[in-house]
Design goal:
The chain is an alpha/beta fold. It has eleven helices and 14 strands. The chain has two domains: 150 residues, HAD superfamily/HAD-like (Rossmann fold); 100 residues, Hypothetical Protein, Haloacid Dehalogenase-like Hydrolase, Chain: A, domain 2, CATH 3.30.1240. The mean pLDDT is 96.
Length: 265
């Protein structure tokens, strides 16, 4: 397998269940990088929330944040953002809140929500970002935002996803975790962002290896000729991928790279 570029999701993919990069993963990726393999993380996380992991990987490459709404330069400055207008964001926020979702949006390194709750506290802990309660989120949003994230029980996310796509046909909706319903501007996806990077970095699908676990990874897996679903991935993702590797608890990405890219088990 001749691989020049590895593109990988973070949560539930490259990160283990404790949401960290294991020593083995860091070792394997350092060896891949030393061989000249380009490593591009691609996450639903905002750029600030990705930064500590990308620094650990020491990729020296641009990366993809907010499900493709942000392209981030190798020096961790945001190079390109595709954002909702305030009017677009407010309409999505209103719909989601009216249907019982916890909702938040983003500006720079911070995120905003109506009232403090377990969802907002949990997100602050997992993302490392600064969260702000603003009382009336819909009225507060007077600025462009790259993403609107909402949280509900997994069965409610699955139930409302088709309905909200009908209500907003010009908005990109995806699911990263079963309880996260994420909204981005029209035609934003990890795959579309990868296509934009491919033009500037001269990436080739035939020599690209991509890893993912959830619905927001499907467009990225479709780009790469060598697509890999995690052992813990959703069934739809496993069916869409060319290969299935071990779970993130078993360092599945690193073990696949060691065996098929570096030639070691």
């Amino acid at each position: 397998m001749l691989i020049e570029t590895i593109v990988t999701d973070l949560d539930d993919t490259l990160l283990n269940p404790d949401a960290i990069l294991s020593p083995y993963t860091l070792e394997v990726f350092a060896r891949a990088r030393d061989r000249g393999v380009r490593i591009i993380p691609a996450s639903g996380r905002a750029a600030y929330s990705m930064r500590r992991f990308v620094k650990q990987l020491d990729t020296g490459m641009p990366y993809i944040a907010c499900n493709g709404a942000q392209l981030v330069n190798a020096d961790h400055t945001v190079g390109e953002t595709i954002a909702f207008t305030p009017q677009e964001a407010r309409a999505v926020i209103r719909y989601l809140q009216d249907h019982g979702f916890y909702v938040q949006c983003y500006r720079d390194d911070d995120f905003y929500y109506a009232r403090e709750c377990e969802n907002s506290l949990s997100y602050q802990r997992s993302s490392g970002m600064n969260g702000h309660a603003v009382d009336d989120l819909e009225m507060f949003v007077t600025f462009p935002t790259p993403k609107v994230l909402s949280v509900h029980e997994p069965e409610e996310v699955a139930r409302w996803l088709p309905e909200i796509r009908k209500a907003f046909p010009d908005v990109s909706f995806s699911v990263s975790k079963p309880y996260f319903l994420e909204a981005e501007p029209h035609d934003v996806s990890k795959g579309a962002a990868l296509q934009r990077l491919a033009e500037t970095l001269h990436l080739a699908p035939a020599s690209t290896l991509a890893f993912g676990d959830s619905l927001n990874d499907l467009s990225m897996l479709a780009y790469a000729e060598h697509s890999v679903a995690m052992g813990n991935a959703r069934d739809e993702v496993k069916r869409a991928a060319r290969y299935v590797c071990a779970t993130n608890a078993e360092d599945g990405v690193a073990r696949f790279v060691a065996q098929h890219v570096l030639g070691k088990c």
